[in-house]
Amino acid sequence: MSKKPKQKPQHTATLPLVRRLAGNYLRPYIGMVLLASILIAINAGSSAVLAQKLVPLIDEVLSGKNPGYLRTFAIIVFITFVVRGFSGYFSAVLMNNVGQRLVAALQKQLYNHLIKADLAYLHSLPSGQLVSSLVNDVNQVRQGTAEVLTNYGQSALTLIFLVGVMFQQDWLLATISLTVVPFTTLMLSRMTGRLRRVAGRTQAALGTFASLLTQTFQGARHVKAYGMEAYEQARVATIADDLRKLTNKSFRVSSSLIPINEILSGLIFVGVIVYGGLEAAAGHSTAGTLTSFTGAFLLAFEPLKRLSKLQTQLQVSLASAERVFALLDTPPTIVDRPGATELAVASHGIHFQDVRFSYQDGTVALDGVTLDVPAGKTVALVGSSGSGKTTILNLIPRFYDVGGGAVTLGGVDIRDVTLSSLRAAIGLVSQETGLFDDTVRGNIAYGRLAATDEEIEAAAKAAAAHDFILGLPQGYDTRVGENGVKLSGGQRQRIAIARAMLKNAPVLLLDEATSALDSESERLVQDALRRLQQGRTTVVIAHRLSTIVDADRIYVIDGGRVVESGTHDELLALDGAYAHFHALQAGGHGAVAEVDAVAQGQTAAVG
Ligand SMILES: Nc1ncnc2c1ncn2[C@@H]1O[C@H](COP(=O)(O)OP(=O)(O)OP(=O)(O)O)[C@@H](O)[C@H]1O
Prior knowledge:
Layout: H1 14-26, H2 30-52, H3 54-62, H4 69-115, H5 119-124, H6 127-169, H7 171-177, H8 180-218, H9 220-225, H10 229-255, H11 257-281, H12 287-328, E1 350-358, E2 364-373, E3 378-383, H13 389-395, E4 404-409, E5 412-413, H14 419-424, E6 426-429, H15 440-444, H16 453-462, H17 466-470, H18 489-503, E7 507-511, H19 519-533, E8 537-541, H20 545-550, E9 553-558, E10 561-566, H21 568-574, H22 577-586, H23 593-599
Parallel strand pairs: 3-8, 3-9, 6-7, 7-8
Antiparallel strand pairs: 1-2, 1-4, 4-5, 9-10
């Protein structure tokens, strides 16, 4: 039976990656790079000068032929060290600066790209992984770029100059010494491939780690409530151990050259000393030449070691760059069409014409939906769980684009107007309130940062939030915690409503979450919502009977289709699906939220 060859993951070759990094991000700083390169050349040249000046030191001074040369030698050595010091400092500072600029540009570009990416794409990746790419991957690119820019050129040039000195002193010995190069290059190239693969896996594991941490800290309440601490500890321990193993492996791979390099170099060094010593003893060359040669040989060791270490860092950075570029290379599909205009319509009626939509995994969510939301009116969507209500809502601000048919706003296809003007016309209040760890004031003003304190307070008053806000420890300046964790459910809802009030958009999308609130909170939120709806074209996913009774029109959705529509009374008279829901509710807790549960054959009321 033939054995299947082990598939290795494909990687972009080193050169295209380096070219992309350098071409796109280094070009603006070419002047700084050139200046730093000149300094690096001076620095490298001074090492060679040192090695070269050993010849007259040995042959002229130590042999007693020209003792006066000692002073000149001392001055040259001192000046060389001063030049090395300053050129080393300034080139390092310049190159580091360029490296940091490159990375800041990459970080900004990646964030700008991700924040504009399609929602479907963002939802397909764990948020921890995105954070990890922005922090860990970009940081690896930062380290690699700074290191490579600062040390690569310098080490390579120093090596070249020193090899030059070796050839100048004894071309035969130099050639023998260089026999080590093809071996080392071969092993280095074998090592780099392995190293890149391990580095890629390490970065991926870091992403998984970040993702797991984000989820467990965000869901800390549930971890505790379900007693899952030990389970989560075990999961984190597994990833931490995986990371340890991967890092160890990477270290082992990168260090594998050390013994081989040392042994090869040792062999050559012994050969150089023996052959060189015999040549000098036989009078074919001088002691100075031999000392200068071995000096250059030994000095060349340091940049050689640094280059092989840099190779490790370079591969780790390139693995990260590959991951960053993979994110950057996924273009958003929900973008402004060429020639898209600003939304400028007199009325904001919404119309769905035979809209079809499937999610990326193929789930058909909407299967020919036609519905109308007249300008300034409220339309409620009712239906069992998974019937497609949220999907309908998500199509209006173009979180997703329709797969067939069209959605129009004020008679204009929403794909023909700019995304910014479309979204500026829409206010959204949903079950996830979208509160950030900012002050109450900052959260209300999110979406209209230029709002005055008076406007913010007026919005809070209209949302029945002003009084409770004043009762918070620092009033409007109280921080609400991540997802508004320091507030009650009703308070979070009212801040979200105040935010929509302040935005004052003509179209309002509501995904009611009042079913989770107690009756007092619910009344306050309902009142606030009613005020918010006034004069706006509103689409509401209804969970409460009161909303449905008030709605100008109700659409009953089932299996991604509209199965009934009309006013509350009309639908009751129709005695169809809606009347059935209503009857079930009337016997229950009076909330359409229970429709979801009941429709799925559950009898217990939700909330
Ligand atoms: N991101 C997604 N990827 C794949 N399928 C999805 C996604 N979101 C929703 N669906 C599927 O699309 C269908 C419609 O979902 P939708 O969220 O629109 O229903 P809903 O009526 O709002 O339900 P609920 O009242 O429970 O919120 C369901 O079958 C659901 O499983």
